[in-house]
Amino acid sequence: MENVITAYILAGGKSQRMGTDKGFLEWKGQSFMANIIAAVTPVVGGNIVIVSSDERYDALGVTRISDIVSNKGPLGGIYSALKHTATKRNLILSVDVPMISSELLQWLVDAHSNAYQMTQVQVDEKSCPLVAVYDRSVRILLPEFLSANQLKVRKFVEELSHQTLSVPEQWSAQLQNINTPEEYKNLNQ
Fold first, then answer.
1. Where Mg(2+) is bound, by residue (predicted)?
2. Which residues are part of a known binding site?
3. How many domains does the chain contain in total?
């Protein structure tokens, strides 16, 4: 598994809706970031990289890189990850899915076909391009989008050869994004 796939956890956002860095919020006794690292480790081993300029993440003991191009949102984070990676396949995750499990991530990685540039999951009709496997080659397509400020990840995905997998019902709650204080409060109830 080492050197076959790398996981990148995007945590470079401004967290405007939440009002604080989501990666440091707690769920089940540990930070969102620590929960995601725990879930992804059985899938990728030590190939885990946090994409963030926040040096506090260094305390978690995994590699951290900063965005190559700042203020470009998740698409800029994906670009930074794919420019950094040495592996063909890359698991890209946002920091706001603390309930994600190793089982769901392994299922996604196993289902990804190298015939596609990207494989994402979906729940109901909502696709999740930030819980996805991206081929390293996608990095050559990103500068055009970033320089034109076309920053919608779903629009970018439409340009890729991709597959979308419906998440089995037993895992669907794991993909709930926690972006607002209200969503965080509901998570902890």
1. 96
2. 10-12, 22, 67, 96
3. 1
